[in-house]
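Human:
I keep going back and forth on a fold encoding question. Comparing notes only helps if you start from a blank page. Show me how you would write down a chain together with its backbone fold. Write it directly below this note and I will take it from there.

Assistant:
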Amino acid sequence: FEYSGEDPLLAGRMVGATIAGVQSAGVLSTLKHFAFDDQENGRMVLDARAGEAAARESDLLAFEIALEDGRPGAVMAGYSRIDGAFASQDAALLGIVKDDWRFPGFVMSDWGATHSTAPAALAGLDQQSGEEFDGVPFFGEPLRQAVGCGTVPAARLDDMARRILVSNFGAGIIDRPARPGGTFDREADIAAARRIEASGIVLLRNERLADGNAALPLRQDLHQDLRRIVVVGAHADLGVLSGGGSSQVLPHASRAFPREQPLHTTIGLKYYQPGAPLDAIRARAPGTQVDFISGDDQTKAAEAARGADRAIVFAEQWMAESRDAPDLHLPGGQDALIAAVAAANPRTIVVLETGSAVAMPWLAAVPGVVEAWYPGSGGAEAIADVLF
């Protein structure tokens, strides 16, 4: 969920637009992870090997497009090796971004991805980031000594500083520094997030029911029988799921929740962001009884759904930095839960909150499927907007 896909053109365009948006607010953006950082499992030991033609037609093309479209202030080297060399000290790799693409900004390392002083500096690394993860301040006193004895030319140090300053001035950080005590319009921000999320939700399935109408939207003028809706699963009474790791965002009133299954990650708990889809659905259906079933007991969930006019099953896939999902199936028996509810109620809608594509073995048994991804602030209301 931290990545933008495998299609170079699509990923490059999306990332470029994101960078341009970030930098328009006076924030320096970093394009990462350069390059071939395509997996989380074993990311510290991965050695990616690709010929130059294949590289420039895949990962490198995505980065090149994103650089042209977004003009970020920095590029971040990843953890992995490329053809045997660590990305942060791979002169051939960093030469592509600086020389071939004439990138004027600076190259920084990821936290824990710097492995040397002189080799990294001479290869083109401009900034060591997260030295507490590296264990050694390679670009601190060791760099001072390397410049002093001539191992690293003073001109290389000047180039590092120049690139960092060019990017900081270019992003407006020097002329318009951030100041503490600012204010923001929380409600306006949530409303904007809600609109963005509703635009990003994907309708995967919408079949016709016995009454001849499509399963969605859930409107009384289309479906006169909406007297009772049962909402099942995924802590839909608490909030909407977000992905874990260093990209975790915690808006006001977020709630941590214990992980249901072991998942070893470097950072983060499982968080739900406000508000609750259950509340949003109730707000959109004031004349309808809306009940919630946790889904922990498949039999009880199926029994509750059997007599309802609609069942809406929320299913989730929590992902986090440092480990890939083991497979494409929904964790924790959720596929079986959906199948059980759908068997009890043929008018079952599934809402997915997942970090990537998932298998849907129950697809033929449900008339409606909505992919909401990790919805973020205003996400519950956005889901209700789409459902209704």
